[in-house]
Amino acid sequence: MTEKKKILMLATGGTIASKATERGLVPELHGKELLKGLEDLQEICRLDTLEVCSLDSTNMTWKHWLLLEEAIESHYEAYDGFVICHGTDTMAYTASALSYLIQNPGKPIVLTGSQKPITQEITDAKRNLRDSIAAAMDEGCRGVQIVFNGQMIAGTRAKKVKSFSFDAFTSINFPVLGVVQNGRVIRYVEEPEPAGEPVFFRRVHPKVFLLKLVPGMEPGILEPIFREFDCIIVESFGVGGIPDSIAEEFFRQLQQFKPEEKILIMTTQVTYEGSDVGVYEVGKRIREQFRFLEAYDMTLEAVYTKIMWILGIGGLTFEEIEKLFYRKIHFDITAQPGI
Hints:
The protein has helices at 31-34, 62-75, 91-101, 125-137, 222-228, 244-254, 281-289, 300-313, 318-325; strands spanning 5-13, 18-21, 24-27, 45-55, 81-85, 102-103, 108-112, 143-148, 151-154, 158-160, 169-171, 178-181, 184-187, 199-200, 208-212, 231-236, 263-268, 293-294. By secondary structure, it is an alpha/beta fold. The longest helix has 14 residues, at 62-75. The chain starts with a strand and ends in a 14-residue tail after the last helix.
């Protein structure tokens, strides 16, 4: 008889674990309570639970990413796969962060949640849990991914695009890895075999700021941002550029630092197809004067968490930071310079 696979479900709160209160939905259910009504799953696998935290995912921070990394690392040898129950609002950030904190895993690390609490009569929670456990048991599944509404999405490519609908997540600039139908995993993208043992990282660098450009932005906001943060991600318009309204002060601030002292990353507010800063004059002028990183077709969530992981290593030159940023990790980037 084939031995049952051992799956560890890590509970973090979120809508899936919420109950209705006078203050609104509040995560109150523990991991074992989420499995009520799903007892048949124990017939196909050994399913254990672990409480990591109990939060609305709005309150998730980089500290909770590290708690999840630590929990998976400490239980890695004992289980065949991991399912993380998580709130949907910041799930894509956590999935991206874990993709960098846990590299080269040979086992599946699946994040899921729901748009409706599992206690409600009409809910997507039970389906998402069943699909996630099916993915966590699949022989060809490895690495961090989100399983939601039957889709399997690479952790570095996922984005929440709907507030209430059950098909809340999509894969950005990359195909879905596969689907789960009636408990059966159908793969579209084959995940490469791990080259060696998994590598776990226990640090991130949180001093990263996202500057979202708006028309007519005033330059006065720049000085405190450059003073307080070690990396500035500019979410610009279209394919990328710095508008005239802030260009002079932006360049003045940037000139005070070496490239590795103040990392600049250019990305775009446009969801699909990525950035290309050199197309227009507003972008080309910064390329001619400064060394910076460009997101190309990466998601914002991947850009934000990847640079936090890189800077968490510490003591790197700009060239080393650049090389790591453009290294493809779990499908996170396809369009990139020849570095």
